[in-house]
Design goal:
The protein has six helices and ten strands. By secondary structure, it is an alpha/beta fold. It has a single domain, classed as Alpha/Beta hydrolase fold, catalytic domain (Rossmann fold, 3-Layer(aba) Sandwich). The strands form two sheets. Strands 1-2-4-3-5-6-7-8 form an eight-stranded mixed β-sheet, with helices on both faces. The chain has a two-stranded antiparallel ribbon with strand order 9-10.
Length: 238
């Protein structure tokens, strides 16, 4: 595999993705999986996901929402990094579109076969990407937040959508999901949602162990979600 940082910009803000290309990547013919990070930033976890995608034959593109080197190390720091995007969804959408443009610019990328997956905060980011562009084939939100944006009443949702969700996730209310489901159905989206019983937020992250916050790793849900994600990506790239 070949891996390297890729710099792109939002105005004066420097952003840095981590790109991992599979062995024998063919110019213009390699599918891309964009990976949107959790609230802590582009941490090693998402870079490992990019490597896992490359091992499956895809380009792993771990995008950057916050800016080069901006990583949170505590709940307070993570919240401070995330909240500007929660309060300004147009900013979130713009950063995702810029990441998509950067991913499409890769010489080995198949511009017509791109999917986006996201974890926690990143799950919401890929939802917003599907709201504003038809240039991705699928989006997968993994224990993602589900707050509708205040700047878009009805998203495009031309991409297939997969939601992998812990049924005991305290960060997503039933009202949040019902509003999202209504939006998906109005758009005629090809969507599916898998709930894991008794499972909390951040269930794919082995470092998550804070029941009071509601973030707890669950190895069974993690394993099952990976199988579902693999099947979904295969269908996206057929």
């Amino acid at each position: 595999m070949r891996e390297y940082p890729l710099t792109y910009f939002d105005g004066d803000q420097e952003l840095e993705a981590w790109v991992v290309e599979p062995k024998n990547a063919q110019p213009g013919k390699t599918p891309v999986v964009m990976i949107a990070h959790m609230w802590s930033g582009r941490v090693p976890f998402v870079e490992d996901v990019a490597r896992a995608m490359a091992a499956k034959g895809y380009i792993g593109f771990a995008l950057d929402m916050y800016g080069k080197g901006k990583i949170g190390h505590s709940v307070d720091e993570n919240m401070a990094l995330m909240m500007p995007f929660m309060e300004n969804r147009a900013l979130m959408q713009r950063r995702m579109l810029l990441a998509l443009k950067a991913a499409r610019s890769l010489p080995v990328a198949d511009k017509d076969r791109i999917a986006a997956i996201g974890y926690c905060f990143g799950g919401l980011c890929v939802q917003d990407l599907a709201r504003v562009t038809d240039q991705v084939r699928g989006v997968c939100s993994i224990h993602g937040l589900m707050k509708k944006p205040d700047n878009i009443d009805q998203g495009l949702w031309k991409a297939m959508a997969l939601f992998l969700h812990g049924d005991a996730d305290p960060m997503v209310s039933l009202d949040d999901w019902l509003a999202l489901r209504e939006e998906l159905n109005k758009a005629g989206c090809d969507w599916q949602k898998h709930d894991f019983g008794g499972v909390m937020h951040a269930f794919t992250n082995p470092e998550a162990n804070d029941p009071e916050l509601g973030t707890v790793y669950d190895p069974k849900a993690d394993r099952r979600s990976q199988i579902l994600l693999d099947q979904f990506l295969q269908e996206c790239f057929q």
